[in-house]
Amino acid sequence: MSEIDKAWRLRTSVVLLRILIGWHFLYEGVIKLYDPEWTSFGYLASAQGPLKQFFLAMTNEAIINWTDGLNIAALIIVGLTLILGIFERVGTVIGIGLLAMYYLAHPPFPWLEQIHAEGNYWFVNKNLIELAALLVIYQLPTADYFGLHRILKKNKEDIKN
């Protein structure tokens, strides 16, 4: 297998990973946006681990609406940047931040009771895995290869010529 073929396969795999993670973020944001009953209150109020007080502070009645709104906006922004392939690195940084907060709100430490967990984990859960995948996407950006950034960049070059 040639080096060009290996590079093409790697880029294609990272594009697929980028779009799938983008879809996950966008879906989560849109579902929360259109659900008038949704709030992050329960998730934050049951936070565990060393940052418990930080997450409990976010449940304050004066700021919970801001907390919910910023969470939804960030999910949608990350989803759009990754799916469309524009501002990809900005989206990955925001996504990494969100996932780190989700992880730290309910860390899967063996000495903590697992609340709001979809299974039994031991240090590693889906948030940490998706965070690691976003680190890969950050290191191997693909928007120049497949995405809106490529189209905009090409149009800009056409205008210069």
What's the structural blueprint in terms of helices and strands?
Layout lengths: L2 H31 L7 H5 L6 H6 L6 H21 L3 H18 L20 H14 L8 H13 L1
Low-confidence stretches: none
Considering DSSP H and I runs of 4 or more, what fraction of the residues is helical?
A: 55-70%
Rg (CA only): 18 Å
Measured between the Cα atoms of the first and last residue, the distance is: 37 Å
Overall pLDDT confidence: 89
Number of helices: 7
The beta-strand count equals 0
**SS-based structural class?**
mainly alpha
Largest sheet: none
Elements, N to C (H/E): HHHHHHH
Kindly estimate the percentage of residues that lie in beta strands according to DSSP.
under 5%
In one word, what is the shape?
globular
The total tally of domains equals: 1
Subcellular location: Membrane
Transmembrane segments: 12-34, 63-83, 90-109, 129-148
Keywords: Membrane, Transmembrane, Transmembrane helix
Protein name: DoxX family membrane protein
